[in-house]
Amino acid sequence: MKPRVLYVTHRVPWPPDRGDRIRTWNILKFLAERADVDLICLADEPVTAETRAALTRVTNRLAIVPHTGKSRYLRGAMSLASGGTVTEGLFESPMLRSVIRAWGQDASYTAALASSSGIAKYIQKPQLMNVGRVWIDLIDVDSQKWLDYSAATAFPMSLIYGIEGRRLRKLECALAAKADRLLVVSEAERELFRQFCEDAPIQAIGNGVDTEYFYPVPSTLTPQSCVFVGVMSYLPNADAAEWFSNLVWPKVRERFPEAVFRIVGKNPTPDVQALGTLPGIEVVGSVPDVRPWINGSSCVVVPLRIARGVQNKVLEAMACGRPIVCSPAPLSGLAVEPGLHLMQADSIDQWVESIASVFDDKCRAEEFGMAASAWVQLNHRWQSCLEPLREMIDTEYSDREIEVQS
Q1: What mean pLDDT is predicted for residues 205-212?
Q2: For the chain, how long is the longest CA-to-CA vector?
Q3: Of the residues 131, 142, 224, 404, which has the fewest C-beta atoms closer than 10 A?
Q4: How many beta carbons lie within 10 A of that of residue 328, not counting itself?
């Protein structure tokens, strides 16, 4: 008889077109090959028949709970006002509670896994009683993300972000005392968590990349072109696009007047859309497949100033064998060697010189691309990255009695 696992995600795992969905989709597939998986997910946008069919193929039981409208933001504000976190309020769903309660009454689960701290409450008692082990995939240390936002923004948002960060840190510590295992996406995130919660049963399970989907292909490059890929309503991505466009790109254009910078990703903010009026910048927006945009560019840029965990956009570009110029923040979760697998740039001058070196030297660009692709193949295939999840369903143990990767 197969183990039975309950998986609760804060967003529908399909299509895998953004960082959290890429991770949850691949975890879902991995678990489904080894257990009967009951999946409950919140849906913050319309769910297509194709999405429902894709999820049905890999689940034993599926519940997609609508979670749209302004009421969720009101619940977030109310949660903050009452001493909780905005995050918990945003993911509050009476319907989700009802489904979990009903499923828990007629099923006994080997393990339950939640995809973020915001929905961790749903797989704990008294919401869910018949469960062997409780795992929570924090993905990133969210408290630090909000504290980073606080440091990077002006009052009054800096105050709100700071409160959210401090309260989330308390929540994360509380979860460490209740869950059998906490997961984060990198050793760097794990070490950060241990700095404020030393005895947490926390383990790093890294992100992978689908190397059968993202791989080097011969393509017609647009000469002297850069691309940045990401969801452009996400604050760190929007900030990165604006910073690069306003401060770095004009200096690149001084040296390469025909150079083109393309911003690819859905839901660009009005400020990001306005960047399309600047010389040599195209705001492409949403695309059905990012690969042609990656493969067709001379260089992939990742100018994130705020970043947590492992950036899928870096892994995907590396898998495609493209030369990459990246700011330091996204590299903290990757064991890459700058100068060998990709180029790291911090100052504006470093950015300009790194991009210029790719534009001027085709052989150098190809060497970086080959090294990047080989490194991803060796270190970030999904199957090997997720192998530690076997413990959740295959091994009888108590995390409270063993030391987790200390």
Answers
A1: 94
A2: 67
A3: 404
A4: 13
Q: Coil, helix or strand for 277?
A: helix
Report whether 146 contacts 41 (CB < 8 A). Answer: no
Q: How many CB atoms lie within 10 A of CB 110?
A: 18
Q: Own/partner pairs for 172-176, CB < 8 Å, 24+ apart?
A: 172/117, 172/138, 172/141, 172/142, 172/143, 172/197, 173/197, 173/200, 175/117, 175/120, 175/136, 175/138, 176/200, 176/201, 176/202
- β 202-204/281-285 pair status: unpaired
Say which residue the tokens 């965990």 belong to: 309
pTM: 0.90
Q: Which domains does the chain show, CATH number per domain?
A: 4-206+383-401 (3.40.50.2000), 222-380 (3.40.50.2000)
Tens digits of per-residue pLDDT, 295-319?
999 999 999 999 887 889 999 999 9
For residues 53-79, one letter each, b for 16 or more C-beta atoms within 10 angstroms of the residue's C-beta and e for the rest, the string is ebbeebbbeebbbebeeeebeebbeeb
**Is 288 exposed, middle or buried (CB count within 10 Å of its CB: 0-12, 13-18, 19+)?**
exposed
Amino acid at 403: E
